[in-house]
């Protein structure tokens, strides 16, 4: 026959002093994390996997906001201030994202810390249309990969022109991270 052991009130109180704070700490740690919500599964377009629907950033997170970043010259032998000197949309996007990666690294951030991106894209002079596919091909080398699975919320927009002639792409990002408990 089994006998049940009853805990005394003092034993329950002692147990509660151990369990309740542990639960509070676990919940506090969960609340301190950046939470990324991917787009719903019913969005079946390939581009829908390239960005998050919503990202929640807790109050204790650090935030880094970058100004717009444009491409560097890719072909010095091309006429200056032309799309030919900076390259096509994919080339310019790789240049821009590479620069953003260096800026973030200089400040202790990673590409996976980017939570928001706005990309301004000018029509390619060769086609008269913005090359969103070229942008995405370069973008997917940095986001949503096995090595770096995070994706930001993102807006891509066609604009008539960017201030420097020849630029087809300019990108602004915000990066966020939660400081580690050890660093505090």
Automatic annotation (TrEMBL):
Q: Which UniProt keywords apply?
A: Plasmid, Signal
Q: Which domain of life is it from?
A: Bacteria
What InterPro entries has UniProt attached to this entry?
RutC-like_sf (IPR035959), YjgF/YER057c/UK114 (IPR006175)
Q: Name one GO cellular component term.
A: cytosol
Gene Ontology molecular functions: deaminase activity
Q: Which Pfam families match?
A: Ribonuc_L-PSP
Signal peptide start-end? 1-30
Q: List the CDD domains hit by this protein, alphabetically.
A: YjgF_YER057c_UK114_like_3
Question: Record keywords: Signal included?
Answer: yes
Known SUPFAM superfamilies for this protein?
A: YjgF-like (SSF55298)
Record's PANTHER family?
2-IMINOBUTANOATE/2-IMINOPROPANOATE DEAMINASE RIDA (PTHR11803), ENDORIBONUCLEASE (PTHR11803:SF59)
Q: What is this protein called?
A: Translation initiation inhibitor
